[in-house]
């Protein structure tokens, strides 16, 4: 069947004899160019904003904060904190000492126990801004792998932990408890450690670990 030569040719417009295919190609190119022109200022402005953000000094004070100097594990830290910040949040979020755990955040579980001037304290109930002239010890300052505190070694030997979340608070409380005037029986240890909750129920092993250290003293 013969093909009509007129069927193979693209129709042309009356203006400059521009074919439909050429017209659509030109229109597509114009649309891309317009879009690129609109996007370019956004990309440039975003890059400028990012550069400006990176050049802001890290030490710039945030409005409403206060400068404090805390002595933690023998090292001094000068930081800007919210006056309402607890010692727990400051240790974890500002100083990045995350060994101290946030449990109930209401002073009821003992997971956040630290030492202030040798005394055990719930750091979630303590304002950081009021601790500038004291010695603060966290679990990181008590012992490290390869050089554990005797209480840490006892917890390992007696399997005094399961999930481990409460363990740092348990150990910090136990270390302070050994120096306090409590009786020698297991019931005395249970009473002294009653402010530290173990949701896994490892209490017999915790008592055994504490008693092992007390016998060594």
From TrEMBL:
Residue span(s) of domain 2Fe-2S ferredoxin-type: 66-142
Sequence intervals crossing the membrane: none
PROSITE patterns per UniProt: 2FE2S_FER_1, 2FE2S_FER_2, TAT
InterPro entries: 2Fe-2S-bd (IPR002888), 2Fe-2S-bd_dom_sf (IPR036884), 2Fe-2S_ferredoxin-like_sf (IPR036010), 2Fe-2S_ferredoxin-type (IPR001041), 2Fe2S_fd_BS (IPR006058), Aldehyde_Oxdr_Iron-Sulfur (IPR052914), Beta-grasp_dom_sf (IPR012675), TAT_signal (IPR006311)
Keyword Iron attached: yes
Cellular compartments per GO CC: periplasmic space
GO molecular function, one term: metal ion binding
One Pfam family of this chain: Fer2
Superkingdom of the source species: Bacteria
Keyword Iron-sulfur recorded: yes
Keywords: 2Fe-2S, Iron, Iron-sulfur, Metal-binding, Oxidoreductase
Cited NCBIfam families: TAT_signal_seq
Identification of the protein by name: (2Fe-2S)-binding protein
Organism: Tunturiibacter gelidiferens
Upper taxonomic lineage: Bacteria, Pseudomonadati, Acidobacteriota, Terriglobia, Terriglobales
């Amino acid at each position: 069947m013969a093909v009509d030569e007129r069927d193979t040719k693209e129709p042309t417009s009356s203006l400059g004899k521009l074919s439909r295919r050429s017209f659509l190609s030109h229109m597509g190119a114009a649309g891309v160019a317009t879009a690129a022109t609109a996007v370019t200022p956004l990309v440039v402005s975003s890059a400028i904003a990012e550069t400006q953000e990176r050049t802001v000094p890290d030490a710039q004070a945030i409005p409403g904060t206060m400068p404090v100097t805390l002595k933690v594990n023998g090292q001094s830290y000068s930081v800007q904190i919210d006056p309402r910040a607890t010692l727990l949040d400051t240790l974890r979020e500002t100083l990045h000492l995350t060994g101290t755990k946030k449990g109930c955040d209401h002073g009821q579980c003992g997971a956040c126990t630290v030492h202030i001037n040798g005394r055990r304290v719930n750091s979630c109930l303590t304002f950081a801004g009021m601790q500038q002239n004291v010695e603060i010890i966290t679990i990181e300052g008590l012992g490290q792998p390869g050089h554990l505190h005797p209480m840490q070694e006892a917890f390992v030997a007696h399997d005094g932990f399961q999930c481990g979340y409460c363990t740092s608070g348990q150990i910090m409380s136990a270390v302070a408890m050994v120096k306090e005037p409590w009786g020698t029986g297991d019931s005395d240890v249970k009473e002294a450690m009653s402010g530290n909750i173990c949701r896994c129920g490892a209490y017999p092993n915790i008592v055994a670990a504490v008693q092992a250290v007390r016998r060594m003293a």
